[in-house]
Design a protein that fits this description.
By secondary structure, the chain is mainly α. 37% of the residues lie in helices and 5% in strands.
């Protein structure tokens, strides 16, 4: 994390949650959104989160090491005073909160529901990009043919065979593997 003072990640997530659901015609009170974000982070309340001396609300990398989940949402949302949050799917709510807690896309500098950590190691991403920007900036970002579309890499980290460092060489076959592959293809062709 950089030395400069960051804004409050929790407040950014609350704002993102409220704006997202407001666009869908649901007005979520700030207190309810704060509680939901706190629950997603595993706390019983906003007060419990704020009283945790080990929690740094300015840490933009908190998703890299902080356990999150919808268990506390499922436990506490039904007990809130009436709120539109009670009518929402908890997995969807969790995805929106996650996106609000995640750093903004490094390409467009906006928060997005499709935000994805760069690289294979989600606990130590090399950055964050939304799927839209990864598609638009195709010369900057790429997918590994073996990891699939679930992981986005910097294009410079994908070799000319479309492999990430973890899968480097997997598409190169030795003579025995080529013979086996040809034999398999011949078998399939002759038995269809």
């Amino acid at each position: 994390m950089s030395d400069k003072k960051s804004s409050d990640v929790i407040d950014e997530a609350v704002e993102f949650v409220r704006e997202h659901f407001h666009a869908r015609g649901l007005d979520i009170r700030s207190a309810h959104a704060h509680a939901a974000v706190s629950h997603f982070l595993g706390y019983n309340s906003k007060i419990a989160l704020k009283n945790d001396a080990n929690f740094d609300p300015t840490d933009v990398d908190l998703l890299n090491y902080r356990e999150t989940g919808i268990e506390k949402l499922a436990e506490h949302i039904p007990r809130m005073k009436q709120t539109p949050l009670q009518s929402l799917d908890l997995r969807e709510m969790g995805a929106v909160i996650y996106s609000g807690l995640a750093p903004a896309c490094e390409w467009c500098n906006s928060k997005s529901l499709t935000i994805t950590p760069l690289g294979y190691e989600e606990r130590e991403p090399e950055g964050w990009v939304c799927e839209e920007c990864a598609t638009i900036a195709e010369s900057e970002y790429a997918h590994c043919r073996f990891c699939g579309d679930g992981y986005i890499y910097r294009a410079s980290e994908i070799n000319n065979r479309g492999e990430c460092a973890e899968h480097n060489g997997e598409s190169v076959y030795d003579d025995e593997e080529l013979d086996d592959l040809e034999s398999y293809v011949e078998y399939i062709q002759n038995h269809n």
